[in-house]
C-alpha cells in the first residue's frame, strides 16, 4: 500500500510518515509512505492508494476527499492526536480502513 500524508507545509506529515513506516514494518506490512504538502495535490494522487489529511486541513477535507475518491484513492482525516502519538498505530489503522473502503468503490 502506498500512503501519502499531507499537511499544510509538509513538516508535520514527515513525522507521521516516519511513524507509519516503523509501525507498518512491525506489523509485517509492505508500505510506501511519503509526506507532502497540500500544494502537492492533486498531482500526487494518481500514484497512491491512500491519502491521509492533517487535521488543520479539515476545512478543506471535503474538497480533498472528492479529488482523491475520483481517482480511486482511499482517504481519511487524521485526528490531532496522531501528531502527538509516539507510534503510528492510529494513523496506520486509519490508512488500512481507508484502503479497505477504497476497494469497495
TrEMBL record:
PROSITE patterns: PTS_EIIB_TYPE_3
Residue ranges of every copy of the PTS EIIB type-3 domain listed in the record: 1-105
Gene Ontology terms for molecular function: kinase activity; protein-N(PI)-phosphohistidine-sugar phosphotransferase activity
Biological process, per Gene Ontology: phosphoenolpyruvate-dependent sugar phosphotransferase system
Cross-referenced Pfam families: PTS_IIB
Protein name from the UniProt record: PTS lactose transporter subunit IIB
Transmembrane segments: none
InterPro entries: PTS_EIIB-like_sf, PTS_EIIB_2/3, PTS_EIIB_3, PTS_sugar-specific_EIIB
Positions of modified residues (Phosphocysteine): 7
Key words of the record: Kinase, Phosphoprotein, Phosphotransferase system, Sugar transport, Transferase, Transport
UniProt-listed Gene3D superfamilies: 3.40.50.2300
Highest taxon of source: Bacteria
